[in-house]
Protein: Oxidoreductase
Organism: Arthrobacter bussei
Amino acid sequence: MALTPSPAAHDVDLAVIGGGTAGLVGAQTAAGLGARVVLVEEERTGGDCLYTGCVPSKALLAAASAAAQARRASRYGVDVGGVTVDFARVMQHVRQAIAHIEPVDSPEALGRAGVEVVPGRAQVLPDGSLRVGVRTIRARHVLVATGSAPALPDLPGIDGVHVLTNENLWDLAVLPARLVIIGGGPVGCELAQAFARLGSDVTVVHRGKRLLPREDPEASAVLRAALEEDGVRILLEHGAVSVRGTGDGAGDGGTEGGLLTTTSGEDLAFTHLLAAAGRTPRSRGFGLEQAGVELDGAGYVVTDRHLRTSRPGFWASGDVTDHPKYTHTAGVHASIAAGNAILGPLRTVSRIEPPRVTFTDPEIAAVGAPTGKGGIEQAVHHTHLDRAVTEQRMEGFTRLAFDRRGRVIGGTIVGPRAGESLGEVCLAVQRKLSATAVAGVTHPYPTHNDGVWNAAIARTRTVLASPVPKALGRLARRVQERRTR
Ligand SMILES: Cc1cc2nc3c(=O)[nH]c(=O)nc-3n(C[C@H](O)[C@H](O)[C@H](O)COP(=O)(O)OP(=O)(O)OC[C@H]3O[C@@H](n4cnc5c(N)ncnc54)[C@H](O)[C@@H]3O)c2cc1C
Ligand SMILES: NC(=O)c1ccc[n+]([C@@H]2O[C@H](COP(=O)([O-])OP(=O)(O)OC[C@H]3O[C@@H](n4cnc5c(N)ncnc54)[C@H](O)[C@@H]3O)[C@@H](O)[C@H]2O)c1
């Protein structure tokens, strides 16, 4: 959405720098509490999630999934015929999804919520005020919500080729013929599957031992098999060493082709190269450090549990901090930071590892304590999940982690729409529900979400079969027998 300059200069309660998810939620939270709020945005409100992250990537995956489902329909006895992908229309669908959501994040919507949007780049002055163009904003509190940018691997030759990132990918007019992706994290995996299913020849070069290294190892293995079934070539424990442009892929928005040399000495030819190798915080170049806001070694804004920075009156949330980089985390943390700024430091960030979903097929969904690390766990493999059987989608599993008191402290679900089933595990973890409590709730049959119920029931049975509950059961029976004598 285009921004138009606003003239007035006045003091406010909260100035927000950045109009992505964190900035939008922080500004609206403070305005909802009756505060006078301005939000400074240098490009367009909506941020990464709307324009270059969650929304376009999920829209692309939806198109890719349609292609994959059509190709695989014959497993159900349904023959669809040849599948053709019209990439221009796929990208039109992606833009339509963005356009549908855009008004919600627009300066007009913010204005209606009581937030004044100031277009331009905020510069923090040593006295803590902000300069935006010719305007100076003196705010009682400042929320830094400037997000992160894609990290470009520092490789010899990389300056000589056009590198795709999540920022410029959405300008592609032609489907990449040979796409090499550096990185096997969430961005690399989601986009590898999307492009492979749309018809690109995709190779992922990942230096870790497994894809999604932060998730359950079995989830990584299932995902690897799924991507390979889609035709993705996966090189694990492989780094990129250098890049050389060859010009082969020219003709698509100036993108050149080239060769990427890996640590094993292999030359991978590409028409398009995508960097999905992590993020860099946008914390430098606008006066934060000079104003006394401490950054860590990687450049993230250092915050305490109330999301205060080292400079009094300055708060931070979202990707610019060292917290997990998800839209929901950015939003929740921004709401905490803005509320604390206006009402006093009442709320702290949760210590629970936040929910996360990698939207591949199958989806990899997890929350709380990591699973697959050998704690108290209960797994249900989806060969025993009737809905998965009916859809021939039995490759996944549901694994719950428990503490010594039998409470759910984490879970991983791998399967179709696993992200939708994760909500219940989030509730159980957040509210410290026991396996017995989850097992005691009637769930509809047959659903993918049954995996959570079945795991809780299996755990409850295991606990009941252990010596102490058995002895208690015997004791209760004896008491009843005596009473009835
Ligand atoms: C490809 C991809 C897919 C993703 N998919 C998901 C997903 O499915 N689910 C999920 O939960 N998360 C997902 N994420 C992560 C999610 O997008 C981010 O965690 C989230 O957008 C971070 O929001 P933010 O507000 O911190 O930053 P941003 O959205 O980056 O917003 C920061 C804003 O600050 C502005 N800005 C920066 N500096 C200044 C300045 N000095 N003055 C004025 N303005 C400034 C920028 O222009 C920008 O608009 C994905 C990320 C990527 C890259
Ligand atoms: N569905 C979602 O919620 C979703 C989707 C996409 C992104 N995100 C967020 O965005 C963040 C960034 O994602 P990402 O995938 O770019 O980063 P990441 O840090 O999660 O993963 C990048 C991977 O690339 C590997 N790598 C880095 N440099 C390399 C090199 N030179 N050669 C080979 N491998 C290399 C790293 O070992 C790492 O595991 C994520 O942490 C996540 O929070 C979320």
The pocket of nicotinamide-adenine-dinucleotide (ligand 2) is lined by residues 153, 182-188, 190, 205-208, 213, 239-240, 276-279, 324-326, 356-359 (CB under 6 Å). Confidence is low (pLDDT under 50) at residues 1-9.
